[in-house]
Design goal:
Layout lengths: L30 E5 L23 H11 L3 E5 L9 H10 L3 E5 L7 H10 L1 E7 L10 H12 L4 E5 L5 H8 L6 E3 L14 H12 L3 E4 L3 H4 L12 H10 L4 E2 L16 H11 L3 H16 L3
Parallel strand pairs: 1-2, 2-3, 3-4, 4-5, 5-6, 6-7, 7-8
Length: about 300
């Protein structure tokens, strides 16, 4: 690491300082299945190749938010600002003991010994990022090589892409040998409606491939109506996925909301979004407790 001074981007939006207490009471044992840690940079510097420099948002703040909102556990997804240096995420998992699991970002040179060490710390998968504005392109063969390694540990793969790129990715996704979890419903353009071929392509993929799961996360990223409506335009999309695939959905806050430009969401409001898309106690129990526990805490 160089002696570079890591200064937060001038247009960076810092996470909400005082989120509301949610009106919706989460079921006992609820899991925030998509969140991140940034640094703190003095202890865990950001990667030289990063595309953005965020604020510090470390494990202590994450776990204070967990308790405030009423979650019991977290799944911490490696943030792109840390590249393939998973130390901040692994440290947060170790600190939380059995209350956290992790998703790593690794390169083709990762060894089984290194993967097993992360497994012992609570890591249960890797993330493949195809969002071009966030990461440089990686050949599919590299990802397939990594997938073969992590399959030996019974890990799964989280994939992040945008709706317009799904059609090209489908053959690759069907080659992966593990469970696949898609971030944020594949980022649909909600202005097109749930019946648009772009979103229906994703629904059909979940129908065709029973190992594909979806996070019904980030209404604040997908919405065009914004927070004043409670992100109402995203509800039909997430509700459809939850009701069609109730045993293959996950929910999460996405704290501390990297690269938000329009506004910084109130995490309490995001929790109150959940009963709008999982409208019965049975669906809420699956989304928030049963599914993440089966995927991340089965061993």
């Amino acid at each position: 690491m160089s002696d570079e001074v890591q200064v937060m981007d001038p247009d960076w939006l810092v996470f909400h300082p005082n989120p509301k207490k949610p009106d919706f009471k989460l079921p006992e044992g609820a899991v925030d299945a998509h969140c991140h840690v940034f640094g703190p940079k003095d202890e865990f510097p950001f990667a030289p190749e990063r595309k953005y420099t965020p604020c510090d948002a470390g494990k202590d703040q994450l776990y204070a938010l967990r308790d405030h909102l009423g979650f019991s556990r977290n799944v911490i997804v490696q943030a792109t600002c840390h590249g393939k240096d998973n130390r901040a995420m692994v440290d947060a998992c170790r600190t939380a003991g059995d209350l956290a699991r992790g998703i790593a970002t690794v390169g083709p040179d990762i060894t089984m010994e290194e993967l097993e060490e992360m497994d012992a710390a609570g890591v249960r998968g890797v993330r493949f990022n195809f969002v071009k504005r966030l990461v440089d392109s990686t050949p599919k063969e590299v990802f397939l090589g990594i997938a073969e390694k992590i399959a030996k540990l019974d890990w799964h793969i989280v994939v992040y892409f945008e709706a317009q790129d799904l059609e090209e990715l489908i053959p690759f996704l069907k080659q992966l040998p593990t469970v696949i979890v898609v971030d944020h419903m594949g980022r649909p353009d909600v202005s097109k409606g749930v019946d648009h071929p772009d979103f229906q392509r994703f629904v059909q993929l979940m129908e065709d491939v029973p190992t594909i799961w979806s996070k019904v996360t980030c209404p604040e990223r997908l919405s065009e109506d914004g927070p004043d409506t409670g992100y109402a335009d995203v509800i039909p999309f997430a509700k459809l996925i939850v009701e069609t695939f109730p045993d293959r959905v996950l929910s999460g806050t996405d704290w501390p909301h990297p690269n938000m430009k329009s506004h910084m969401p109130d995490d309490g409001v995001l929790v109150d979004f959940i009963p709008k898309i999982a409208t019965t106690p049975e669906l809420q129990q699956k989304l928030l407790v049963d599914n993440p526990m089966r995927l991340y805490w089965a061993r």
